[in-house]
Write a structure and sequence with these properties.
Layout (H helix, E strand, L loop, with lengths): L1 H13 L4 E5 L4 H12 L8 H4 L7 H4 L5 E8 L3 H4 L2 H5 L5 E2 L8 H20 L7 E4 L7 H7 L4 E2 L5 E2 L7 E8 L18 H5 L5 E3 L2 E2 L5 H7 L9 H4 L2 E3 L3 H5 L25 H5 L3 H7 L9 H15 L4 H7 L8 H12 L2 H4 L3
Helix pairs in contact: 1-7, 15-17
């Protein structure tokens, strides 16, 4: 098994993962943290976080027979994405979280994990039947806790996994297995007294170290929330129309972040340089075409317009913005109309000049 574990890590690197670690399924501390988080209703409308009971923190309940979890990480920061701080600083630009600029990572990583499972099964042969199942943010899995325990990094105060040599710009994936592989040592935490991520959060969603109230998080508000964005939080969102990277941008450990060679993660359709008025003008057909194969498509056209309307409301007063917003007052969606009305109200100096 020790030899097989070394082989698995080598195969993982060959398949494009930057690191592979192995851990057991014992997650009592993570389970307690999750239950406390849910008890405080920090999950908001993400009902799926509690729908599966203990399956999330007890892998053997999700995939019977699981003894070990093979945890992997894959860098996604591209050179184009690395230059996006300028876009965040320009209130007329459309800021999209860097992870979503290219191809949806779920299918790509799951396919790689399945190839890893196939290699493992071929190596052990039929005399030792392996039971393996791949997950990439697609089932109730405590992927961050597993990654930390497998030595891939520690969970930072912003709740993302940080690696001392690679920062935090990476995706996680898991392979559950019944093979009694030797396990790796957990990663030690290295946040120290730093609280940069707490201070930079635009909506102060990180209410305490290691405690994120998702109901205030820009990523939750622009991606997970189905209805209206609370009015008191709209001005704080700025020009972020899909997700938020502020806590990662400010993290000092990301000075060690590496650029990926994975071409599928490169920005598509110039999503890293779009203007708000440009993407607001997309019809539903255009939206579906330009987000094909992208994680962005999951929010649908109405929430896309909702998010951009808020960003346009936060942009400097402009007759061009007002002209773009007014026709959307006739949109079929009550939600879209509500956010457009709010955005127009922010431009009163243009609409009703003194």
């Amino acid at each position: 098994m020790a030899s097989l574990a070394l082989q698995i890590k080598q195969w993982g690197l060959e398949l494009g993962f930057q690191q592979v670690g192995i851990t057991d399924t014992d997650l009592p501390e993570a389970e307690a943290h999750l239950e406390n988080w849910l008890d405080n209703n920090f999950h908001g409308e993400m009902d799926y976080m509690q729908r599966h009971g203990l399956k999330r923190s007890r892998p053997e309940l999700l995939h019977p027979g699981t003894l070990r979890v093979i945890s992997v990480r894959m860098d996604y920061r591209t050179e184009a994405a690395a230059a996006m701080n300028q876009s965040l600083a320009d209130p007329t630009s459309a800021y999209i979280s860097r992870y979503a600029l290219g191809r949806d990572y779920h299918k790509l990583m799951r396919n790689r994990l399945q190839k890893l499972a196939d290699k493992i099964q071929a190596e052990i042969g039929s005399d030792l039947p392996g039971s393996m199942r791949a997950f990439v943010d697609s089932a109730p899995v405590l992927e961050k806790a597993l990654a930390e325990k497998a030595g891939l990094g520690w969970i930072g105060k912003h709740s993302n996994v940080i690696n001392r040599k690679a920062g935090s710009w990476f995706f996680l994936g898991e392979l559950f297995t019944n093979l009694p592989l030797p396990i790796d040592s957990p990663a030690a935490a290295h946040c120290g007294e730093c609280r940069a991520c707490l201070d930079i959060c635009p909506t102060q969603a990180i209410i305490a170290p290691y405690q994120v109230d998702a109901r205030r998080c820009v990523s939750y508000l622009t991606i997970e929330l189905y209805g209206s964005i609370p009015e008191n939080l709209r001005p704080l969102i700025g020009n972020r129309i899909y997700g938020c990277d502020d806590c990662q941008i400010i993290c000092p450990w990301n000075r060690f972040a590496r650029l990926t060679d994975e071409q599928d993660f490169s920005p598509r359709h110039r999503l890293n340089t779009r203007q708000l008025l440009d993407v607001f003008a997309w019809s539903e057909t255009e939206f579906l075409a330009k987000t094909e194969g992208s994680a962005i498509r999951r929010i649908g056209h109405q929430r896309w317009l909702r998010n951009i309307a808020v960003a346009l409301g936060n942009a400097p007063a402009s007759a061009l913005i007002v002209d773009a917003l007014k026709p959307m007052l006739n949109h079929d969606s009550d939600m879209v109309r509500e956010h457009v009305q709010w955005a127009l109200a922010q431009h009163q100096s243009v609409i009703n000049p003194k």
